[in-house]
């Protein structure tokens, strides 16, 4: 009896466990079914959203261009400094920054005593330079170019009336002499050995007996230097008449005859002449025209120019403007300056090229011609090669307003600057100045690289591009939401918003597309709320009491325990 009772108890527990398993399976199936239904609903909603995002566009005709943009600050163009010899002292400056001056307007008065002192110093320097010139004139180059060694003339670079320095610069020598009596040619060694006899044939067919002088990776062949032409291409054959190789003849032991000044009056030797040490090779003239002589003459000319400026300043008693413009800045100051305000009509740009007697000069002020301004902008390395001088640019100046000004690319600096792995170059754009433009104002620049008028245009999103082709869709099925009738097109310029169609479509054709913002479905959002508040599974057995399914073995459903903790092994 006890045995039967125990058996019935085991059977009851096994039945409860089986029921527990079945209920768990049902619950899991219900959850999975709910997830599938939810996913289907999200897919349907996403697909419906995709349908709503399909747009259409017609091919239109218009203009399109590609541009390079940047920003910078305005700067006055052609600003020049007004300078005067440093030995001169100014009494009064009659202009202020921002004044306009005209050619001939008074800029500053000078201290006459300082000018007289500078004049005396300039004249004294001229006198000293005249003495140096006289000494330099006596330091002549030898009128004859001679040779210090015996040899044979093999090549002559200098000709009558040639400048010696020019001949030396272009050729490195005036003449070439052969010292040991041989010309040479190098050919592949092959089977040649030192001492072998060979035949050397020049470009005119003349044959010379040759001897192999040395052999390494190449063989050096020597022939008599009387006759063969320097630099001629010759052919070498061995004793069996087989061609060994060819090459250019050169002087085996060469002497370069040099010089540095004068003019060739005559060439006193010919090619292949034998000469002895001390023989005259060339006769020169203008031998007193030395480099030192030239340098002193140049220095004297500079002092003469300074003297002329000092005389003009002394006679006028002031510094005047020689061009018109606006005073950008004043660099010179003096305690005696009364800084009286000039008439607002003043305008001038003065450039003084003269220096004081020791080469120093002082800057009085800077003047802008007030005609043009520049904007310098940085351009990335990917765009710099598409720019060139003369290209048109549009400029807007923030502080003036929305007006657009036309400029031109006037300079491209190809010196690169790199920062953070980005390489950039500086491009300068020049534009006409208006009264509102001031140095330092911020400006935005757009440079037109290439443009097309009467182009067929589509929104760039409407064209799908791959590495090898581009295409559009010309039909759309609202029922299925499918795009169809794919047409391959050829594209041209793009400005980031619109793209040129050069082949495949005509004006008025309609295409369909999904804007780039909705090209791909966001499946993460589709499943992002699973298990969240959007799905309520509490009804799937919320009233079920799992505690009775085996004495708590399945009670972990609410507390995180093991579902099958009481299942048999």
The main sheet comes to: 7 strands, antiparallel
The level of helicity is 10-25%
Overall geometric form: flat
Which strands sit side by side, in order, in the main sheet? 15-14-11-12-13-10-16
Question: How widely separated are the two ends?
Answer: 28 Å
Task: Provide the residue-averaged pLDDT.
Answer: 82
Structural class: alpha+beta
Oligomeric state = single chain
Q: Report the C-alpha radius of gyration, rounded.
A: 48 Å
Please tally the helical runs, counting DSSP H or I stretches of 4 or more residues: 7
Strand content: 35-45%
Low-confidence stretches: 47-51, 336-359, 517-569
Number of DSSP strand runs: 34
List the SSEs and their pairings.
Elements: H1 2-53, E1 55-58, E2 60-76, E3 80-85, E4 90-93, E5 100-101, E6 106-110, H2 112-138, E7 144-146, E8 151-156, H3 164-171, E9 175-178, E10 182-188, E11 197-201, E12 207-215, E13 218-224, E14 233-237, E15 243-248, E16 250-251, E17 254-257, E18 263-267, E19 274-275, E20 280-285, H4 291-316, E21 318-320, E22 325-330, E23 361-368, E24 372-380, H5 381-384, E25 392-397, E26 404-419, E27 422-432, E28 442-459, E29 464-465, E30 470-477, E31 482-488, E32 490-494, E33 498-503, E34 510-513, H6 523-527, H7 556-559
Helix pairs in contact: 2-4
Key phrases:
alpha+beta; 7 helices; 34 strands; 569 residues; seven-stranded antiparallel beta sheet; six-stranded antiparallel β-barrel
